Amino acid sequence: MKKGFKDGFLWGGATAANQFEGAYNEDGKGLTIADVSPGGKQRMKLLRDDSYPLEIDLEKYTYPNHLGIDFYHRYKEDIALFAEMGFKTFRMSISWARIFPNGDDAQPNEAGLKHYENVIDELLKYNIEPTITISHYETPLNLVKSYGGWKNRELIGLFEKYARTILERYASKVTYWMTFNEINTGVLGSFFTLGMRNESLNNNFQALHNQFVASAKAVKIARELNPNIKMGCMSIYATMYAYDSNPVTVAETMEENRMFNYFCNDVQVRGEYPTYAHSFFTKNNVVLDVQPGDLEVIKENTMDYLSFSYYMSTTHALKTAEKEESEGNFFGGTKNPYLEASEWGWEIDPVGLRIALNDLYGRYGVPLYISENGLGAVDKVEEDGSIHDDYRIDYLRKHISEMEKAVTIDGVDLMAYTAWGCIDLVSASTGEMAKRYGFIYVDLDDEGKGTLERSRKDSFEWYKNVISTNGVAIQK
């Protein structure tokens, strides 16, 4: 049994450029897929519809990410607040289109490179370690329209050029990197991940293969530049339960779990395609274009650590069973009668996080990094300006407590925890500001109205205390 979290544990928060940075068309930045994604609960439905043009139409839609919370101009103020909380690390992403506006430009945009250098230097000033995600739902729009997204192998070379550019610029300052955000959502054909809509199963997995190769090449570049760099993959993990003890249900759950929770991690951490994936490809007539050298570069450039987001579990029942569906869960599934749900219908399962940590560490044996976890909720500002978000504290307390059990009782090697949306930002799934995650409140509504002033929620002081005691004060 270990005693608490390790010395040097990386407490912090996580964000994505397209959800909080703003300045979507300033200083030479090009358009990304996020810039043409409208706000509102219809966002995901529209993006799945091929008739929806990937263009900006201000007469029909709002685009909250165009302003975000204006971190681009306010980063010094926000980083000072992160430092006040005691952050040890801050997970951020770099927008590809801020470096190469079209994704295939001959030369990088110096204004974009300088901006991120300024942000990194500001973090380091407060001894906050940057953790950088190279691609977080921010594929340049031109690569979708002109190349067809990630099913096109040309994106491997373009991504390699982009990765080399930022790694060469920041390798001496940034130790922790991740390649693709929640890469395994590509198994579901996610537009945000692959830059593709309603493609065939074959094209989805071809796109993932291309990303595996691109990711491995980024790892190779990083290690050549600085052997001390730590490279990680990043997936979204949903602890999966069989609804009942029917062996058929259990077997189906196992198959879903392998393809969603393990497949991308197996390739990137173990360095090879697992046998069950080959069986899946045969069953579903998936034939990949694997070029000479692809498998070798994947095998030779595996990850130093495994990062994952955790928000919910999912429960699988046979399709023939008459069970109530779980409406809000990103992964669908059957409603779990033992779990409560958030305002957005996301089932809350803290114990599932402990299960996830044990599962992943037992399978891969590399350090784990919880890169996203948090509760999206509506926050009420009182007359005196205070924000009493006890529901958020309760959610985080229960999840971090289970995380502590995984470390102290189960012996899991956990290196970091970065709460998602540590400062309020635009929701990826709904394009709303109303769905808030942060310890820091931003005065901005779904229509882009507000002062953008920052204020501390009750959870701000609670998390500050957790960090200062290295997790001892979780229950206070």
UniProtKB/TrEMBL annotation:
Q: Which InterPro entries match?
A: GH (IPR017853), GH_1_N_CS (IPR033132), Glyco_hydro_1 (IPR001360), Glyco_hydro_1_AS (IPR018120)
Q: Which domain of life is it from?
A: Bacteria
Task: Return the similarity comment.
Answer: Belongs to the glycosyl hydrolase 1 family.
From the Swiss-Prot or TrEMBL record, what is one GO molecular function term? Answer: beta-glucosidase activity
Provide the active-site residues from the annotation.
E372 (nucleophile)
Q: Name one Pfam family in it.
A: Glyco_hydro_1
Q: Which UniProt keywords apply?
A: Glycosidase, Hydrolase
Query: Which biological process terms from the Gene Ontology are attached to this UniProt entry?
Result: carbohydrate catabolic process
Mind telling me what this protein is named? Glycoside hydrolase family 1 protein
This entry carries the following GO cellular component terms, namely: cytosol
